[in-house]
Amino acid sequence: MIKLLQVAILVLFWDELYGLPNDIEKCRINDEQCLIRSSNKVLRKYYGGITEIDLPSLDPFIVDKVDLTHDYGVIKARGYMYNVKAHGYSAATIIKFSGIDKNLIELHFKVPVIKFTGFYKGRGELLSIPLQGTGPFTVNFYDFLIRLKIKLERYTRNGKEYFRAVDTDISSTVRTGDLDLPEVGRAVNWILNTSFDVVLKSSMKSYIGDVWSKLYEKRFNDVFNKVPIQDLFLVRYKNYTILSTLTSDRKS
């Protein structure tokens, strides 16, 4: 009986166990300038994660394993990358944050340098030259601009309303970049780096769109699943107004 009571209490107060730190500025759901200002402050201060809601690190952004398939253009490859870390998000600047009142997040942010490190295993070909191997990799993107569109749904749980990210579209531009694949040799690295604009831009854009859109979607849901809408934004609900009125009447 006691165990059942403990479970019941946990269910009733589950939503109260999670909450954003008090120093994070709340904004009205359609106040773009406030959302931009608050989000940039969060990036600077909480890039290592937010323990209050069990949000993992944003810088580095860590991915255990990513399957890789690329079957067109001058690069053809199949394999996977693992222990992938993306460094640089703490220096990102959000320049657009809107659409939430229409159940759509439009988020644009730019990063001076994003550095990807990790390990790969795969096989493929570059300019019809067969390649295969296993080893570490490093990729740097300079002046990286990412544009996200995230479709949202609302649902109710334990009497509170939540967002859920259900579809994500991503596009990006990058000025230039470089990479280092020690295991493939100097010649292949030289080809990849001297022809970065031709060889890598389209390939990496496709990779970012196919893979990272789901990762961003998951990271948003890590927050949305734990923090109700009224705790994320300054939202006025009819029920709250009615409750306040009844409380005032009782006091009088």
How would you characterize the overall build of this protein?
- The protein has helices at 2-13, 32-45, 186-194, 196-199, 201-224, 229-232, 238-251; strands at residues 27-28, 61-72, 75-87, 93-98, 104-126, 129-157, 160-180, 233-234.
- It is an alpha+beta fold and 252 residues long.
- Strands 2, 3, 4, 5, 6 and 7 form a 6-stranded antiparallel β-sheet that branches. Strands 1-8 form a two-stranded parallel sheet.
- Strand 2 and strand 3 form a beta hairpin.
The rounded distance between the terminal residues' Cα atoms is: 42 Å
Mean pLDDT: 76
Beta percentage is: 35-45%
What's the total count of β strands? Answer: 8
The secondary structure category is: alpha+beta
Biggest pleated sheet: 6 strands, antiparallel
Count of alpha and pi helical runs = 7
The share of residues in helices is: 25-40%
The run of helices and strands is HEHEEEEEEHHHHEH
Q: Per the principal axes of the C-alpha atoms, what is the gross shape?
A: elongated
Provide the low-confidence segments as ranges: 1-17, 237-252
In short:
This protein has 252 residues and is of the alpha+beta class. The N terminus and C terminus are likely disordered.
Identify the notable features of this structure and list them briefly.
two-stranded parallel ribbon, 32% helix, elongated, disordered N terminus, 252 residues
Helices and strands, with pairings:
Elements: H1 2-13, E1 27-28, H2 32-45, E2 61-72, E3 75-87, E4 93-98, E5 104-126, E6 129-157, E7 160-180, H3 186-194, H4 196-199, H5 201-224, H6 229-232, E8 233-234, H7 238-251
Parallel strand pairs: 1-8
Antiparallel strand pairs: 2-3, 3-5, 4-5, 5-6, 6-7
